[in-house]
Amino acid sequence: xxxxxxxxxxxxxxxxxxxxxxxxPTFGARRLYQCRHCGLAQLYPLPVxxxxxxxxxxxxxxxxxISPEEYEGYFTFFLEHLTTRLGLTPDQHVLDFGAGKxxxxxxxxKTGFKDVHSLEINRNFVAFARDKLGLDxxxxxxxxxxxxxxxxxxxxxxxxxxxxxxRMLNETILPLVKPGGRxxxxxxxxxxxxxxxxxxxxxGYSPDDHIWFFSKKSAEAIFHPMSGIEIxxxxxxxxxxxxxxxxxxAGFVKQAYLQLVWTQIERLGHGDQLIVSLRKNGG
Length: 283
Known about the structure:
single chain; 5-stranded antiparallel sheet; Rossmann fold; globular; 7-stranded mixed sheet; 8 helices; alpha/beta
């Protein structure tokens, strides 16, 4: 690793910014850098010019290869996490932020949740949700949503795409959350063993559109100092053995062994993703 001045400021509060360049893997003109203060990694430069980011996501068809069954498998796992670990109940008001095709919205409704909304800037996905899935309460602009009206704002694999996730959290997401409500988001885990094993083939990199790579350490360093919220929980998970995983080794013994191994890997903090729960003060 080579010391560099750094491509841009980090999301943490430390100044002056200090970065180290990660020589491999590389992705065309984009390179990996890591903050020396908090450990947050980023791909730089941005995938498109900063003033074109919204346009890029408004028109992209970057989720065409994901089936509804894959979404439902992950939703089943996520809902279990939200209900058993965080106490989410069907009477609570839920917003899916960066909802994509709004399958979570559909699944929440089918599960008995009465007040579910989706916020998504991609016009193609919004049209799909309204016309094909028959969903109401699908929005393209947060300004139409009532302030402090949601018990939970959920965001799955979105924060790593945002140019400034801390600003988005402060200015757009938190004003929509009730006092005492939660923001729960899932992102790829920088400390995943799969990242080290697979290199540039690790799915978490997604160099066409990802910017940030969080770890438990960097998430704590970034969100702990923020006023108005507290970190309630950070969970490390992997896809192995989950209902959305495509990897199914033959034989009960192999499956049980793999589950045992990956459970230990998760406990050591090296699973594929982080689920971060932030609670808004008050309430």
